[in-house]
Design a protein that fits this description.
CATH topology of chain C: ABC transporter involved in vitamin B12 uptake, BtuC
Helix content of chain A: 25-40%
Oligomer: heterotrimer
CATH class of chain C: Mainly Alpha
Shape of chain A: globular
Number of strands of chain C: 2
Shape of chain C: globular
CATH architecture of chain C: Orthogonal Bundle
Number of helices of chain C: 14
Chains: A alpha/beta, B mainly alpha, C mainly alpha
Number of domains of chain C: 1
Largest interface: B-C, 46 and 48 residues
Strand content of chain A: 15-25%
């Protein structure tokens, strides 16, 4: 432990043994991270490895349930957003954190509270202009325009420049989370050059990217995260793209999963889409997986598949697709309703007699599904929020499966669900698939993707690889998810 | 570089253009309106409406809506015609307290996370009730200075125009140029990032409501200055007119996208629409309808504009 | 015990309790002799608020931002058009009704067309539409006050078995509304949409269709109320709908329907409508002036919404 306290003394920010869990999910499981002055730390890992959680701890947005945080060698008891900012920690978020209705100058004013007083506009223009010029020479962005009228790439440039700007509190540690995702290679190159000079001047950067050669080129040291902890940590010269991908995978995972061995190539195609990279096709009775890093277009694909095959104006007697939501609060659960109503809403078309709902049929159908899928409740009339997260998710499954739709779209539905529930749901999915239903399953969890008969890997909004049968392995999926490697 | 200019200025240009077209049409129909007195008559009643519109705009800047503006302006008008005339100190105190009440309202709405529409709906009864208590029947008297302010004849430009321009500039400085204005609009645009930078969103909302109350007070005083007396329902129509004015002026319901200059232009356009029809010799029945139609046409144009903007991206 | 418990969990019970309280307080002053007359008047006048409130409730159920501001204008236009068409002729009563409902249908369709076509918030669409409808009403009316046909005037002002006819009509409307909401698929759809538009869409609810029907339904109910009110008050006046804009929203909110959408309450509309009328009569009886009555009404609306809001916040 002696060496670790040594590093803590010098580190800009050091996180020690941080633990955070969201329900059943352990997002951080004793993670260690220390960022030295004048170093660029690369941070890589697959979905759920804990990258964004530890970033949120460092920028003060999340307080770990256990563990210690050091800033400039001193232990911080009450670490939060304002402490982080005072130590010069800045973060470029993946989602936009600017006010789209304000100009670039005005956004600078919002970010830097210390920029008050008469003539603040001129000061803010100078601060952000200087930073933009430094990071992206010849950027061509007028700071007087509203952010909303900028293109996505320009907004990202502003956001990055904003993080590096200095209006009193010097930026010392910049967290760049997928900073190049909307930049073309020329702009990305400029930014990476600036990162180098920022580090040379003694600043620190945490760099997160799915483009591995970028990480290898820019980082001095690379930390590979897995399952909420640090899986490997070496100087970047000691890594190659291949060894990085290997480090991200589960080393001891035994590939014992039995492929169903079903030959579905002869089955009729029930779903097709051709506008995103490689052509997408799903066959009758097939479990099709959508894989890749989260946020690379899988959910959009599912929503599009749903939109193109459902009606908005008239009720559909024979629905073509049905949908299981992953974000239960956002597009799944109806919070004010009972379990019964939540379960039956998608299949109401089959329960209607002269416009009125046949409540007896509704109840018996719901009881059937409650038993079949083992929703743990005595009373279907109880509020849906009285159920645990896993059981809520089962209600959503029952809702979808109780329709007659031949295709079930699933948007990462197992997020935050306990292991027991997962196994039960896998069993039901297999049964239903054997009976001829098609599942299109976006999952951020590798073991689920490996259950699929066919997998499409997404990167930057496009399908970049199609794997079938024996090709569906963790190594192949990881390789295709990260750019730079032949898939 | 050029693209930015076109999109941003078009947003502001649309309301200005609709006002210009209406104005040209009015002059063409009635050349005599193209005079000092004519212009003053055309825009006289626009001044209080413009001020009320600015008040509504401030509430809309933080993504809320005020359904009590009409009742509140009526109430202020009643206070102006009674206390502010007879015992100015009491009158000023009442008006200051009502501005404070607006700020408190903003705090309550924020803290309890209440729908502003319903709370202000309730407040419209309250203000209306106080107005009826003050002036059960039409009457009262305008304070000398308010009367003078609204009827003064400055050289070259009629007072209605001068007052509109002053109001627009004042609001522009406050909302578009000052740090406070940036903060208020920031809350409307992305409250989370404002909070993340360490600001108090609740204070910003209270400030927005308080300022709205202030502008509504000015509207009430200006109205009495014009009409010389008041009654409890004198400004009922202002609630709907002010919402329409903000929208006409390029403002939006959500996202903190507002324009004070546009709002004043919107209010002028709505007022002018009525006169235009009377010059057309169309029955005055259609006055309100024309306001609705103009609103719809401008919104249709704006949709077109947004489509173009999206395509250019 | 459990019956009592389940009763107190109904949001509408509070509006009825408040109504009863206000009724008793008023009767204390007027004496039992006035009780019958008071109740009769309450039911007569509440009927109109109930009908427009029911329409507004359907719209508010659709979720935040959904509100119909064109109700007063629609009422006025429907009343005017119907009375003009009937021209004091008893034989035209049905035709007048159809004309009124037709006006409602047209306004509803126009409202939703604006919402959809211009992609503007419902509040501004119904607002602009109300300007236009109001103008048409003024133009149609031309300051003439046409009397309703004898038959209709008699029907709306008299009672059956001691119950005002208008109240009976309103009761029929609310029974149908209750069926639609609680038993029909349509009710499931709109409450689903109000809780989460996206979730409803993904669960296969025909979102656009359901919203369209709701706006049309609201306008048709407003038109129907306008037809009845014009007949009841002996002619259509241009400002006859004015007070029903705020009233329609107030009775929905006080009746226990969630302003955030997704939960509606038909019985509560009756409780709230009676309550709104009785509060005014009570304050009247106790000699309060019009101003005080309005102030009290305003504070009651705000307190109800604060209580309801706080209650839900605690439940979470």
């Amino acid at each position: 432990m002696n060496t670790s306290t040594e590093t803590q003394k010098d580190a800009v920010i050091a996180v020690e043994d941080a633990r955070i869990s969201f329900g059943a999910v352990k997002a951080l499981n004793g993670a260690q991270l220390a960022i030295m002055p004048g170093e660029c730390l690369g941070l890589v890992g697959h979905n759920g490895a804990g990258k964004s959680t530890i970033v949120n701890v460092i920028n003060g947005g999340l307080t770990p349930h256990a563990g210690r945080i050091f800033a400039d060698g001193a232990i911080q008891e009450r670490y939060g957003i304002n402490v982080a900012r005072a130590h010069g920690v800045r973060c470029v978020f993946q989602e936009l954190s600017l006010c789209p209705n304000l100009t670039v100058i005005e956004n600078t004013r919002i970010l830097h509270r210390e920029l008050g007083g008469p003539g603040w506009r001129a000061k803010a223009r100078e601060v952000i202009g200087r930073s933009l010029d430094a990071v992206f020479p010849n950027h061509g962005i007028d700071p007087a325009v509203t952010v909303g009228s900028l293109s996505i790439a320009e907004r990202q440039m502003v956001e990055i420049a904003m993080a590096f700007s200095d209006a009193g509190i010097k930026p010392r540690l910049i967290i760049l989370d997928e900073p190049t995702s909307s930049l073309d290679s020329g702009l990305a190159g400029k930014m990476l050059d600036y990162v180098q000079s920022f580090i040379a001047a003694g600043g620190s950067v945490i760099f997160i990217s799915h483009i591995l050669h970028e990480v290898l080129a820019v980082a001095d040291r690379i930390v590979v995260m897995k399952d909420g902890g640090v899986a490997a940590e070496r100087a970047s010269g000691d890594f190659t793209e291949k060894s990085l991908v290997e480090a991200m995978g589960s080393v001891v995972k035994n590939e014992t999963r039995q492929h169903s061995g079903r030959d579905l190539n002869a089955a009729p195609v029930v779903l097709e889409q051709r506008d995103t990279g490689l052509p997408f096709a799903a066959r009758e009775g097939e479990i099709v997986g959508l894989a890749g890093l989260s946020g690379h277009g899988q959910t959009e694909m599912l929503l599009r598949l749903h939109r193109l095959r459902s009606r908005n104006w008239l009720p559909q007697r024979d629905p073509a697709v049905t949908f299981v939501a992953g974000d239960r609060r956002l597009n799944g659960i109806f919070e004010r309703w009972s379990i019964l109503r939540n379960l039956s809403v998608a299949a109401l078309g089959d329960l209607v007699h002269r416009g009125l709902v046949n409540e007896r049929a509704e109840r018996s159908k719901a009881e059937d599904w409650r038993e079949r899928i083992e929703i743990r409740t005595q009373n279907l009339d109880g509020g849906v929020l009285s159920l645990s997260g896993g059981n809520q998710q089962k209600v959503l499954f029952a809702r979808a499966l109780s329709t007659r739709a031949p295709v079930v779209l699933m948007d990462d539905p197992m997020r935050g669900v306990d292991v027991g529930t997962k196994q039960e749901v896998y069993r039901i999915i297999r049964e239903e698939a054997a009976a001829g239903r098609t599942f299109v399953w976006y999952s951020t969890e590798m073991e689920e993707v490996c259950l699929c008969d066919r997998v499409f890997v997404f990167r930057e909004g496009r399908i970049v690889a199609e794997l079938t049968g024996e090709e569906v392995t963790e190594a192949n999926i990881l390789a295709a998810s990260f750019a730079g490697l032949p898939a | 570089m050029n693209r930015y200019v076109s999109v941003d200025t078009l947003r502001l240009a649309l309301p200005a253009l609709s006002l210009a077209i209406l104005l040209v049409a009015v002059f063409w129909l009635q050349p005599r309106a193209m005079s000092y007195t004519g212009l003053n008559l055309l825009f006289n009643l626009a001044v209080p409406i413009a001020l009320a519109t600015l008040a509504q705009m401030l509430i809309m800047a933080v993504n809320d809506l005020d359904l009590s503006i009409g009742a509140f302006v009526s109430f202020v008008a009643c206070v102006t015609a009674t206390y502010l005339y007879s015992t100015p100190v009491v009158g000023i105190l009442i008006l200051a307290a009502s501005v404070g009440a607006y700020a408190v309202l903003g705090v309550i709405i924020h803290l309890r996370n209440l729908p502003a529409i319903v709370v202000t709906l309730g407040m419209s009864f309250v203000w209306g009730g106080f107005a009826v208590l003050l002036l059960p029947s039409p009457g009262g008297q305008a304070p000398e200075w308010a009367r003078w302010l609204m009827t003064v004849r400055p050289p070259f430009v009629p007072v209605a125009i001068v007052a509109s321009i002053v109001a627009a500039l004042l609001a522009h400085l406050l909302v578009m140029r000052s740090s406070l204005g940036v903060l208020i609009r920031g809350v409307g645009g992305n409250a989370r990032s404002v909070e993340r930078a360490g600001w108090s969103v609740i204070a910003a909302r209270a400030a927005a409501y308080g300022l709205a109350g202030f502008f509504a007070v000015l509207a009430g005083i200006a109205l009495v200055g014009l009409t010389t007396s008041a009654d409890a329902g004198i400004a009922q129509r202002y609630t709907l007119l002010s919402i329409a004015g903000v929208i006409l002026g390029g403002g939006e319901f959500t996202g903190g996208r507002i324009s004070p200059i546009g709002a004043v232009i919107g209010a002028l356009t709505l007022t002018l629409a009525g006169s235009f029809l009377s010059f057309l010799r169309l029955p005055s029945d259609w006055q309100i309808g024309a306001q609705g139609a103009i609103l719809i046409i401008v919104l249709a144009f704006r949709l077109l504009l947004n489509r173009l903007e999206a395509r250019n991206k | 015990m459990t019956a009592l418990q389940s009763l107190t969990q109904r949001p509408w019970i509070w509006s009825f309790l408040a109504t009863a309280l206000v009724w008793f307080t008023t009767v204390l002053m007027t004496g039992t002799g006035g009780a019958l007359g008071l109740s009769h008047a309450a039911f007569t006048f509440a009927a109109f608020s109930v009908i427009v409130g029911t329409g507004q409730m359907f719209v508010i159920t659709l979720g935040p931002g959904n509100i119909d501001l064109s109700i007063p204008a629609t009422m006025t236009l429907a009343g005017t058009v119907a009375l003009k068409l009937m021209a004091v002729d008893n034989g035209m009563v049905a035709a007048g009704l159809l004309a009124a409902l037709g006006v409602g249908l047209a306004v509803g369709v126009a409202n939703y067309t604006l919402i959809k076509l211009l992609r503007i918030p419902p509040i501004i669409a119904t607002l602009s539409m109300s300007f236009i409808v109001q103008s048409i009403a003024i133009w149609t009316n031309r300051g003439l006050r046409i009397k309703p046909p004898q038959l209709l005037a008699e029907f709306t002002t008299s009672s059956t078995f001691g119950v005002p006819n208008t109240a009976l009509v309103a009761l029929a409307v609310t029974v149908v509304a209750w069926l639609l909401l609680e038993r029909a698929v349509y009710g499931r759809w709109i409450t689903a949409i109000g809780q989460s538009l996206e979730a409803a869409r993904m669960a296969g609810v025909p979102v656009e269709g359901a919203r369209f029907v709701t706006y049309v339904l609201c306008a048709v109910l407003a038109a129907f109320a306008g037809y009845l009110l014009a007949s009841f008050s002996g002619g259509a006046a241009l400002n006859m709908g004015a007070e029903y804009l705020l009233m329609s929203i107030a009775v929905v909110v006080i009746g226990g329907t969630s302003v955030a959408g997704g939960e509606s309450n038909v019985p509560g509309i009756w409780g709230a409508s009676l309550f709104m009328f009785l509060v005014v009569s009570m304050l009247n009886t106790y000699g309060f002036s019009a101003g005080v009555r309005m102030i009290m009404t305003g504070f009651i609306i705000i307190s109800v919404i604060m209580l309801a809001g706080g209650w839900r916040a605690n439940a979470r």
